[in-house]
Amino acid sequence: MYVTLEPCAHEGRQPRCVDAILEAGIGRVVIASDDPSEKASGRGPGMLRDGEVKVEFAPGEEATAARLLNQPFRKHARTGMPLVTLKLAISLDGQTTTPEGASPWISGAKSQELVHRWRAESDAIAVGIGTVLADNPLLTARTPAVHRQPARVAFDRQARLPLDSQLLQTLDQSPVLVVAAQDSDPSRLTALRNAGAEILVADDISAALSDLGRRGITSLFLEGGATLAAAFDEAAQIDEVRTFVAPILLGGLASGSRRFEGEAGGAPPAQRRPVFRPDASRGQSPTPQAKNPASGRGTPGLPLHHAIKSIGKDALITARFKEW
Ligand SMILES: NC(=O)c1ccc[n+]([C@@H]2O[C@H](COP(=O)([O-])OP(=O)(O)OC[C@H]3O[C@@H](n4cnc5c(N)ncnc54)[C@H](OP(=O)(O)O)[C@@H]3O)[C@@H](O)[C@H]2O)c1
User: Fold this and answer.
1) Which fold has domain 2-69?
2) How much distance in Å is there from the Cα of 126 to the middle of ligand 1?
3) 3-state SS, residue 244
4) How many Å lie between the centroid of ligand 1 and the Cα of residue 286?
């Protein structure tokens, strides 16, 4: 028998896998990846060996492929937090919006199709309240590949989510969670609760991720905007980044000070819009279990793995910063 994940010796939503294997009289089990959760951690394979089953762990590439397949499960098992994948679409001049803050479609149709598939693979999609106020998005997975709509999460410390937003008007499609700060206006929280939102009170990103993890969310697809993305980066809470680079200019060269912060002639800091910089070197992983040769993200700012491919007219760069 070949399995992607170590057979379990505990009862969860399903009965114990080891019992089924022993009862079936299977003589040899090849396991592609271990189960790092506390309840498991080798107990299943041990019980199989006690039952005189030959147990082997797959080597090399197969083991790596299985471990990568199970990243959301593995991170959640180790840290109680969801795997965070940041998606960005940027222009050739490195912008996520126009200088005025307008948000035209940046990536092409093929890239957007792919984004909907990624949404469908995630337990939840997150954006900052800036994006909700600017775009009034639905944040649903609009693809035939969807079996279950992901939950939608708005990082909204002051509970500003409009009651007539598309998010709250489409609760029949999937739940909406609002991550608000302790000191947010209680009357706003009550209004949002009455409108059907779930409120999650957390004062920082790590606390919010732990709360999402307790709610069973193992994968969070973070769709920006740049301010929230930068905050996740600052908190060293980004596991993977998928950036579409579209062959358009959004005005980042003309107002170079926005992009090239700190260079001569730049605007005063107070006037600069925050820009997500994937090469930032801040933050260490608070979770030492991640595969991280030097620190929370490997050598600071450098991914463990990356790939570049064409999606329609766009270039897609994917980069994995942590492995679980
Ligand atoms: N090209 C792309 O990939 C892309 C993707 C998404 C959005 N966009 C565009 O980007 C624009 C919005 O971006 P944005 O940067 O202004 O807004 P944003 O990142 O969507 O939201 C920022 C807001 O999130 C809230 N927030 C909650 N928790 C936070 C935390 N821990 N740290 C920081 N902020 C937190 C803050 O408001 P409170 O203080 O009130 O909580 C903050 O002002 C829109 O025009 C949108 O269309 C582009």
Assistant:
1) Cytidine Deaminase; domain 2 (3.40.140)
2) 10
3) strand
4) 24
